[in-house]
UniProtKB/TrEMBL annotation:
<keyword id="KW-1015">Disulfide bond</keyword>
<dbReference type="Pfam" id="PF02628">
    <property type="entry name" value="COX15-CtaA"/>
</dbReference>
<feature type="transmembrane region" description="Helical">
    <location>
        <begin position="134"/>
        <end position="156"/>
    </location>
</feature>
<keyword id="KW-1003">Cell membrane</keyword>
<feature type="transmembrane region" description="Helical">
    <location>
        <begin position="111"/>
        <end position="128"/>
    </location>
</feature>
<keyword id="KW-0812">Transmembrane</keyword>
<comment type="pathway">
    <text>Porphyrin-containing compound metabolism.</text>
</comment>
<feature type="transmembrane region" description="Helical">
    <location>
        <begin position="248"/>
        <end position="269"/>
    </location>
</feature>
<feature type="transmembrane region" description="Helical">
    <location>
        <begin position="82"/>
        <end position="99"/>
    </location>
</feature>
<dbReference type="GO" id="GO:0006784">
    <property type="term" value="P:heme A biosynthetic process"/>
</dbReference>
<feature type="transmembrane region" description="Helical">
    <location>
        <begin position="176"/>
        <end position="194"/>
    </location>
</feature>
<feature type="transmembrane region" description="Helical">
    <location>
        <begin position="276"/>
        <end position="299"/>
    </location>
</feature>
<keyword id="KW-0560">Oxidoreductase</keyword>
<dbReference type="GO" id="GO:0046872">
    <property type="term" value="F:metal ion binding"/>
</dbReference>
<keyword id="KW-0350">Heme biosynthesis</keyword>
<dbReference type="InterPro" id="IPR050450">
    <property type="entry name" value="COX15/CtaA_HemeA_synthase"/>
</dbReference>
<dbReference type="GO" id="GO:0016491">
    <property type="term" value="F:oxidoreductase activity"/>
</dbReference>
Length: 345
């Protein structure tokens, strides 16, 4: 049987890089307060692009009098949608190719089909983000969907590459890596909740918050997941105590995740996977530094977007770690790895 071609791998890798760009564009859209730059979906004020002519802008104002046109924010939103649409086409191509080559040795099928379903769901979340006016639950779910799409595309690229050797590892190390991945996903969800509720600046000092180790907080309202659908959530609806609770929750989560990832890096180093350990430690250090900079510099846009990038890259490092520790080589690759050391990199 034929094995997946370089074209298959190249397409998956291109989709992965495009997904990373879409994640960054989504972060920029959210952090520049352009999430409602177009009040409708999939167009913008009833147009395929942002209306630029006087006549088009007059029509836009007439159609959506409650949402005055801001051209710059409209283009930020539409550029994000254009690239997301292109990503959808690439994922569709991967799914079609997988169906055509489903009998090939080493050709994943369920993963490309799952990705296609996820991208369709992401499109729905993109629509609901606008129609539900940045409802935090939908915004956070949309962010998680973007990170999931990126991670699954990276996993598909790893599987199609034929270049990443599986590494035999103790069960305890595999469990630690799996727990680290799950906890990081939870922390990313917390970060999304911080962003969607505009709580990033609820504390502007470190390591204290408002000069106190434990200021007034309202966790019940901060993490009230059945908030009313209907208000415009641009700028947030929560009071200071609720936003402080969200911010502190993210800080505490970051501390727990950092300690667990450091422990994983040490275990990887001791197991002989020194490159993976160093890569994980470097990604973690970068992400922690960006998180601290966000607070001390009062959330500059560039640093905030970079923090999203850091989270995405750290997640991909953990995807790589778990893949290396859990992967089983297909028959066409086993001979290649037969003479390798059990934990060879």
């Amino acid at each position: 049987m034929a094995t997946p071609t370089r074209t298959d791998f190249g397409l998956a890798l291109a989709a992965t890089l495009l997904a990373l760009l879409v994640v960054l564009l989504g972060a920029y859209t959210r952090l520049s307060h352009a999430g409602l730059g177009c009040p409708d979906w999939p167009g913008c004020y009833g147009f395929l692009g942002v209306p630029m002519s006087e006549h088009g802008q007059a029509l836009a104002e007439e159609r959506f009098p409650e949402a005055p046109l801001e051209v710059a924010k409209g283009w930020i939103e539409m550029v994000h949608r254009y690239f997301a649409g292109l990503l959808g086409l690439l994922v569709l191509s991967l799914a079609v190719q997988a169906l055509r080559r489903r009998v090939a040795d080493g050709q994943p099928l369920r993963l490309p089909l799952a990705l296609l379903g996820l991208v369709v769901l992401q499109a729905a979340f993109g629509m609901w983000t606008v129609t539900l006016k940045l409802w935090p639950q939908v915004v956070t779910a949309h962010l998680l969907g973007g990170f999931a799409t990126l991670s699954l595309l990276f996993l598909l690229s790893l599987r199609l590459s034929g270049r990443v050797a599986p590494a035999a590892a103790p069960r305890g190390l595999r469990r630690l890596a799996g727990a680290a991945l799950a906890l990081l996903v939870a922390q990313i969800a917390l970060g999304g909740w911080v962003s969607s509720n505009y709580a990033a600046l609820a504390c502007v000092d470190l390591p204290t918050c408002h000069g106190q180790w434990w200021p007034d907080t309202d966790f019940a309202n901060g993490f009230h997941l059945t908030q009313q659908i209907g208000p415009n959530y641009l700028g947030g609806q929560l009071d200071s105590a609720a936003r402080t609770a969200i911010h502190l929750g993210h800080r505490l989560g970051a501390l727990v995740v950092a300690l667990l990832l450091l422990a994983l890096a040490v275990r990887l180093w001791r197991a002989g996977l020194t490159r993976l350990a160093a890569l994980l430690a470097l990604a973690l250090a970068g992400q922690v530094s960006l998180g601290i900079a966000n607070v001390l510099l009062h959330l500059p846009l560039g640093v905030a977007v970079a923090h999203n990038l850091g989270g995405a890259l750290l997640l991909q490092v953990l995807v790589l770690v778990n893949y290396r520790l859990r992967a089983v080589a297909p028959a066409t690759q086993r001979a290649r790895y037969a003479g390798a050391a059990p934990l060879a990199e």
